Amino acid sequence: MSRVLVLLLCLSAPGAFAQDGEQVPAPTPPPPGPDLRDLMHSRNLAMGGAYMSMGYGAETLGGNPAALSAFKRYQIEASGSWDIPNGMGFGTLALADSTNQFAGGISYHFATFGGLGRRWAHVTTLALSYAIADWIHLGVSGRHHVIVGASNTNSITMNAGLLIKPVQWLSLGVSGHNLIYNFNRDITRYFVASASALILGQLTPCFDLRADFNQPTPRFAYHGGLEWLIAMTVPVRVGYQYDGIMNHHYVSGGVGWFMEGSGVDFAYRHEIGGANGRLVSLTIKLQLGQ
To answer: Which residue has the higher pLDDT, 251 or 4?
Structure first.
């Protein structure tokens, strides 16, 4: 176990090394509209973007990687989203395997976003997670960004996280994102504290608090959502998001079909004011076994 902890600490080290010497200036804020933080699957979008402590889907690869080992499954997911007014769209293919004590996965996103400052992004993520015990999980992920257009980069960064389950029905997580500094306005560092619960096997409330310290004054985003699994087959979801980091305000909802880990999810996210986003999303997931 000590070797595993040393490995995870070594992987986290580059985030600290990037801060040596003089403090680097904060990148120029991106223009209004969806960005790379919106690369979520339909379940997450429907629940207000509050998903960092929930580990059942392959979306954990781009969120808190520690949640990857929380559930035993072998899962493939394909997802696509489109924000019609803002011309933002992305497609995702993800594979997650947590059938062993070490869990791993890989995902690929292609996204186009930015309005008049149009960018095209290829984002590849490789994540690893280790269950020290049933109640505590550690995870790291590496992300490779290739962005062309109004903001160019070919760079690598990383996420790292911790997930604790003090009781079977409660999950608490903390994670750091884009820990390796990139001089790019689309890849900024932020931190997340998250919580979710499973009540009576049917209700899943969740909450994420995101914190951004790249400006002189800290900025925060609040994400909350609720899922009701009707007859263990039909999930109905609602969510709310107030994003003081990127100045967005969303309400969202969605439905799906779920059977033994496989299913289909649909989501709609409506922006109140701001860039007037209207985003629709569809995810297909296939669980091959445990």
So the answer is: 251
Between these two residues, 137 and 73, which has the higher pLDDT value?
137
| pLDDT for residue 1 | 43
The pTM for the full model equals 0.86
pLDDT, one tens digit per residue, over 89-120 is 999 999 999 988 899 999 999 999 988 889 99
What is the reported pLDDT for 289?
Answer: 65
- Per-residue 3-state assignment (H helix, E strand, C coil) for the chain: CHHHHHHHHHHHHHHHHCCCCCCCCCCCCCCCCCCHHHCCCHHHHHCCCCCCCCCCCHHHHHCCHHHHHCCCCEEEEEEEEEECCCCEEEEEEEEEECCCCEEEEEEEEEEEECHHHCEEEEEEEEEEEEEEECCEEEEEEEEEEEEEECCCEEEEEEEEEEEEEEECCEEEEEEEECCCCCCCCCCCCEEEEEEEECECCCEEEEEEEEEECCCCCCEEEEEEEEEEEECCCEEEEEEEEEECCCCEEEEEEEEEEEECCEEEEEEEEEECCCCCCEEEEEEEEEEEEC
* Residue-range domains of the chain with CATH: 2-17+31-289 (2.40.160.60)
